[in-house]
Each structure stands twice: as C-alpha cells, then as structure tokens.
Design a protein that fits this description.
By secondary structure, this protein is mostly helical. It has one domain. The protein contains 4 helices and no strands.
Length: 63
C-alpha cells in the first residue's frame, strides 16, 4: 500500500473514532507493532509469491 494512501486512511479512521478509543489504542499498542511496516521486506514477499505462483501454474499446466 502506498505510504501516503496508508497515512490518509489511518488519519481518516482516527478522526472517525472517539478520542478515548484512539488514546487507548495508542497507549496499549506495543512499540514493535507501531513501526511494523518499517521492518517488512515487501520486495522479498513479492518475489517469493511470484515464484510460488509460477511454480503452481507450471504444475497445473503439466497435469
């Protein structure tokens, strides 16, 4: 997901929620989850999924 779109989606969601819910979520979410997208290798995931889909497609065509 595009970072700008993601930020927009979360800010719209946050503005629609009551302030006490937003505060509770912010205060109880572990730091490791607050920055989870910083540690995700999306390029690697894409590459692995593409390889697996090609493998499955090849097996299906061979049958």
């Amino acid at each position: 997901m595009d970072c700008q779109l993601e930020a927009s989606l979360f800010s719209r969601l946050q503005s629609a929620l009551p302030p006490n819910i937003v505060a509770t979520v912010n205060n109880t979410t572990p730091e490791s989850l607050k920055h989870v997208t910083d540690n995700v290798d999306f390029a690697g995931i894409h590459s692995n999924l593409l390889t697996e889909f090609q493998h499955v497609q090849g097996v299906t065509c061979a049958q």
